[in-house]
Amino acid sequence: MQPHKRSISLVIEGPDGLLQVRRPQDDEALPGLWGLPAASLEEGESEEEAVRRAGRSKLGVEVRPLRPLGEATAQRAAGPIRMRDWEAEIVSGDPSVPQRGVGTQYDELRWGDA
């Protein structure tokens, strides 16, 4: 049995709603899909560390992880994934995309209803 890939997503609320991002059209797993900013955990990385890294590398902001909200598992083409949603708050910066980091970079962001 293949082990689950561990990932986190950021649930960031602002005055205009929930922060959402759109994946690029050439994304292998979820092309053009709107969703929450997310990152896969690196070897030896805690979920809280991954939340902070995702804020910096995906949105260009510093975030504070507040608490886990829930988790789900899914089967993707590359194998099973376990995603945990984390409530987080922006402590400095204004989110913008794309960033110049490695991994998935988003094409757009918006604030609104989930």
Give me the strand/helix succession: EEEEEHEEE
* Multimeric status of the protein: single chain
β-strand amount:
over 45%
Estimate percent helicity.
Answer: 10-25%
The SS-based structural class is: mainly beta
Defining key terms:
four-stranded mixed β-sheet; 1 helix; globular; four-stranded antiparallel β-sheet; 8 strands; mainly beta
Secondary-structure blueprint:
Elements: E1 5-11, E2 13-14, E3 17-22, E4 34-35, E5 38-40, H1 47-59, E6 62-76, E7 79-92, E8 108-112
Describe this protein's structure:
By secondary structure, the chain is mainly beta. Helix content is 11%, strand content 47%. It has 1 helix and 8 strands. The protein has one helix at 47-59, and strands at 5-11, 13-14, 17-22, 34-35, 38-40, 62-76, 79-92, 108-112. A 4-stranded mixed sheet has the order 5-1-7-6, covered by helices on one side. Strands 2, 3, 4 and 8 form a 4-stranded antiparallel sheet that branches. It is globular, with a radius of gyration of 13 Å.
